[in-house]
């Protein structure tokens, strides 16, 4: 470069740098954390996220071969307005309500109970043991089976909560590992001493008629009112009782709750034990209500569904009832799609995953807002 031209160019660049530059944008947007959002706006955001998830799911089902015009008919008309299918929805919803509420209970106490399946398995094992060993008279057999299911589910939830509070063991790992222990012990029983001697298939002998949940009226199983009673007790515990008030402090901030005198450890232990008991009752409902015996796969899908219900309901017991009914509708409609359109049941699990992703994404818009900032503001 010419030595005479170079100083001139440097001078021009220096002068240009000193000139005030116009803003690239007269307006821009800033992302802020919300301090608080009214509950009805939260409901609107979650509702829009669910609609988006349902829209994506509908597109996938149409691509898989389900006629678009039949989606509303399959998922709403034939499921809700058909008496037989409505009974099936209520029957399917009963254990789902319990595992969903079990998840809500534990999550409220800041305990991530992913061992709902293991607690269900032990509840079913306890109920089946009462049947196999013929404990008590026939008239008391069902109440004894229910009590055994509660006790076994509660006991299986005790280990991880003690490990967390005493030894600081992460409950996500401990509850998941205990699931595998429960599953393998179940298989040990069903392929061993509890195998049906008549058929030699890996399931327990069939329960006696007085050991199964009866139908009360118009084909409605006793599992439905039992689930409703447990749900009402859970609503009372979380919404009205003093323990529920303490639990709100624990859910908000355990350290502050302990500082103001709330018995944090006792609340966590008690709530997790109630969660395990509910999961145990769910195992009893499936074995004594739906299966009529202990099988090796009765629990499959319920653990994930319970976590999903608690997550979608945001640990609200009233919302958990609604979500559990919607999940039961999805399961019943999924079985119909299997029969008439050869849709695999894994498609139902895919729809569940899509709904989880959409609702999880909606949390970003609940916790944040986009604010338009004037060009001169920082």
From TrEMBL:
Coiled-coil boundaries: none
Membrane topology qualifier: Multi-pass membrane protein
Domain of life: Bacteria
Alphabetized GO MF terms: transmembrane transporter activity
Gene Ontology cellular component annotations, sorted alphabetically: plasma membrane
Alphabetically ordered keywords of this record: Cell membrane, Membrane, Transmembrane, Transmembrane helix
Subcellular location: Cell inner membrane
Spans traversing the lipid bilayer: 43-68, 88-107, 119-136, 142-163, 175-194, 222-247, 268-288, 294-313, 320-341, 347-366
A Pfam family hit: BPD_transp_2
Protein name: ABC transporter, permease protein, putative
Annotated source species: Stutzerimonas stutzeri (strain A1501)
């Amino acid at each position: 470069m010419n030595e005479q031209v170079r100083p001139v160019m440097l001078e021009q660049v220096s002068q240009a740098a000193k000139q005030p530059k116009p803003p690239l944008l007269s307006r821009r947007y800033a992302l802020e954390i919300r301090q608080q959002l009214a509950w009805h706006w939260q409901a609107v955001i979650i509702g829009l996220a669910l609609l988006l998830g349902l829209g994506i799911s509908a597109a996938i089902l149409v691509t898989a071969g389900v006629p678009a015009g039949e989606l509303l008919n399959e998922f709403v008309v034939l499921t809700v307005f058909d008496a037989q299918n409505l009974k099936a929805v209520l029957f399917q919803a009963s254990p789902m309500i319990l595992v969903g509420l079990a998840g809500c209970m534990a999550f409220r106490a800041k305990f991530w109970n992913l061992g709902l399946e293991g607690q269900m398995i032990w509840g079913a094992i306890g109920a089946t043991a009462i049947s196999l060993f013929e404990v008590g008279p026939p008239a008391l057999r069902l109440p004894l089976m229910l009590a055994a299911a509660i006790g076994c589910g509660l006991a299986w939830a005790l280990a991880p909560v003690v490990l967390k509070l005493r030894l600081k063991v992460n409950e996500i790992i401990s509850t998941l590992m205990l699931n595998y222990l429960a599953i393998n012990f179940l298989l040990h029983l069903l392929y061993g001493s509890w195998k049906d001697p008549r058929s030699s298939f890996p399931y327990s002998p069939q329960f006696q008629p007085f050991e199964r949940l009866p139908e009360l009226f118009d084909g409605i199983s006793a599992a439905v009112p039992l689930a409703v009673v447990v749900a009402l007790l859970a609503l009372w515990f979380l919404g009205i009782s003093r323990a529920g008030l303490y639990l709100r402090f624990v859910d908000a901030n355990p350290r502050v709750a302990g500082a103001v005198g709330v018995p944090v450890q006792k609340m966590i232990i008690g709530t997790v034990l109630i969660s395990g008991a509910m999961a145990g009752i769910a195992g009893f409902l499936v074995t004594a209500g739906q299966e009529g015996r202990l099988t090796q796969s009765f629990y499959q899908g319920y653990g994930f569904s319970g976590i999903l219900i608690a997550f979608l309901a945001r640990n609200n017991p009233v919302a958990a009832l609604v979500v559990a009914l919607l999940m039961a509708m999805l399961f019943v409609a999924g079985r119909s799609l299997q029969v008439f359109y050869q849709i695999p049941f894994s498609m139902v699990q895919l729809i569940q995953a899509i709904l989880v992703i959409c609702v999880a994404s909606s949390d970003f818009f609940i916790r944040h807002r986009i604010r338009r900032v004037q060009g001169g503001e920082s």
